[in-house]
Amino acid sequence: MHRVLVIDDDASIRAAVDMILRYEGYAVVLAADGSEGLAHVRGDDALDAVLCDIKMPGMDGLEVLQGIHALRPSLPVIMVSGHASISTAVSATRNGAWDFIEKPLDRDRLLLALRNALANRELGQTTERLARAAAGRHEIVGSAPCVQALRTMIARIADSDARVLISGENGSGKELVAQNLHLLSSRRDKPFVDVNCAALPNELIENELFGHERGSYTGAEQRRAGKFELAEGGTLFLDEVADMPLQAQAKVLRVLEEGRVSRIGASDSIALDCRVVAASNKDLQAEVAAGRFREDLYYRLAVVEVQVPPLRDRGDDVVELFTRFLAHFAKRYARTPPRPDVAVCRWLTTQRWPGNVRELRNLAERTILLCNEPTLQLADVNASTPLRVEPCEDVFAIDNFEAFKDSSEKQWLLRKLRENGWNIKRTAELLGMQRSNLYKKMERYALHPPR
Length: 451
What we know:
By secondary structure, this protein is of the alpha/beta class. It has 19 helices and 16 strands. It has four domains: 3-133, Response regulator (Rossmann fold, 3-Layer(aba) Sandwich), CATH 3.40.50.2300; 145-309, P-loop containing nucleotide triphosphate hydrolases (Rossmann fold, 3-Layer(aba) Sandwich); 312-384, Helicase, Ruva Protein, domain 3 (Orthogonal Bundle), CATH 1.10.8.60; 395-444, Orthogonal Bundle (Arc Repressor Mutant, subunit A). The chain has helices at 11-23, 34-43, 61-71, 86-94, 107-137, 145-157, 174-183, 202-210, 227-230, 246-258, 284-289, 295-301, 317-332, 342-350, 356-370, 378-384, 401-419, 424-431, 435-444, and strands spanning 3-7, 27-31, 49-53, 77-81, 99-102, 164-167, 192-196, 211-212, 224-225, 235-239, 260-261, 270-271, 275-280, 304-307, 339-340, 375-376. The strands form five sheets. A five-stranded parallel sheet has the order 2-1-3-4-5, sandwiched between helices. The chain has a five-stranded parallel sheet with strand order 7-10-13-6-14. The longest helix has 31 residues, at 107-137.
């Protein structure tokens, strides 16, 4: 139920408006003057709209409007006056009034103005929620020094048109960096267009980037804009740019040099205004040396180079990310997120994570789907994770007792070391074994933590 404050010094007007609004299902709060009205605004966070008379003794409506705007800028105010004039209406609008209606009040006009004001406020609130949600999805999480340095670099270069080359392993978050560069720039309200150069066949990538004119080739039945055009005013993200064929590289270079693009089959070109951000999981300088990437294009793209750290270099950030992913997927699947115990946290920080953040996210989703306990233990993680281990030897195929003992002991120690995150001291204590003895057995069986 929407809550509306009515400020008017005329008791009969207050009573009439109160009756109209309550009949329509609104909750109504009444105030006899401006001071009382502002007191309600200060103390009632549930207010959704205000109806305020202009001509009142003491504090007039325009002063009240200014006070409301200072306290609650997003609260819509509809001004009401029996002495309306164009100058008064203009003044009210300039001071932030949503609408201006005259007395005697027309019921339909009043309700329409109120409905429009409330709808606009709800739209603004929805937009704000979506913006916050989008910002949260694109947040770069972590407090590791390398992550703090990355955020600092992004903040410094985001609001510029400098081209950026982002390097990093698969799954480390290169696209997330590109999205942050866009969202923190003055281009944030324009399109962010991404192109995965590795996912497009060689014969289609030019069509995807530059578009085509109708009839330019068999099957081109209508004109189609390319990604460069679609990113007008915004950001074009060329992901895995090292996989772009050399012929397409030459044409991209020309577009960057001239600031213009030509559709396939077109006789003229189109001026462009988009920022280009590229990314690669390969060493582009090595690709240049090997003749697989144009040196001149490399220097066009790499005005600023940003290196995204792999997950294994981020220390305790892994635990924070994992916990956030658990909460995210628990909400998606309507489940309660488990709390990782100490052994799980230790294990998370000792893994190599070749798939980086993407691999960690997948683990969190599997965990939510398969674990029903309030506390997440390492056995639960292992149960949901395809461990990278050698298959256990078939003990029943072993011919002699000594070999059987060695094989069994090796597998048992390997399991215990993994469960304790390869913490030698803790493993030895739990097994009731001297650390020196455990080290000897690890050396004997070639048991080493993952690298």
